[in-house]
Design a protein that fits this description.
Blueprint lengths: L1 E4 L4 E7 L6 H17 L8 E6 L5 E6 L3 E3 H7 L2 H4 L2 H23 L2 E2 L8 E4 L4 E3 L6 E2 L26 H4 L7
């Protein structure tokens, strides 16, 4: 949801647990997403402004509010004639390049997203591209991001099947 950050009088995005989510399982995942996103300060990763708690002691993640649409909606809404245009292809390749830069930066920091897909990419009103939803990210390094599991310990399938690499679909943590 959106809120106003009073000190700076700006609109922000606030991510919290849904009421139906058990805080025992949801809280660690939201905190993991906050820590990973906070570590990944990059032009193509949604900036984190604050991490806090609400009145019920549930975590709140305050981030930049992106005015725009998901890359998925851009891809879905394009008609066949638009998809055949060279300028459309160039636009999509430009978005893909920025997504790849964010993924490369994360990999250099020892982080793997694990659910990279067009629905988790926001394209802002001015063409800016942001990769979000780092909630199931893993670390490839011992002592990486606090409370983020190591990739070698992954033994469960998480993510979106259509976008998974074979080693992720097999939950083969050592091979990811």
């Amino acid at each position: 949801w959106q809120a106003v950050q009073p000190a700076l009088d700006r609109v922000v995005a606030v991510k919290s647990l849904r009421q139906e989510v058990d805080p025992r399982s949801g809280t660690p995942q939201l905190l993991r997403e906050a820590r990973v996103t906070g570590v990944l300060e990059h032009p193509n990763v949604v900036p984190v402004y604050a991490l806090g708690r609400d009145d019920a002691d549930r975590p709140l993640l305050v981030m930049k509010r992106i005015e725009g649409r998901t890359w998925q909606s851009i891809l879905t809404e394009a008609n066949p004639a638009t998809r055949r245009r060279d300028d459309y292809l160039r636009e999509q390749l430009s978005i893909l390049k920025q997504v790849a830069l964010a993924a490369h930066f994360a990999h250099c920091k020892g982080v793997i997203h694990r659910d990279l897909k067009p629905e988790n990419v926001m394209v802002g009103s001015f063409g800016e591209v942001y990769v979000g939803d780092w909630g199931i990210a893993v670390s490839v390094r011992e002592g990486g991001v606090r409370d983020v599991p190591l990739v070698k310990d992954i033994a469960a399938i998480e993510g979106t099947p259509a976008y998974m690499a074979p080693e992720m679909a097999a939950a083969a943590g050592d091979a990811i």
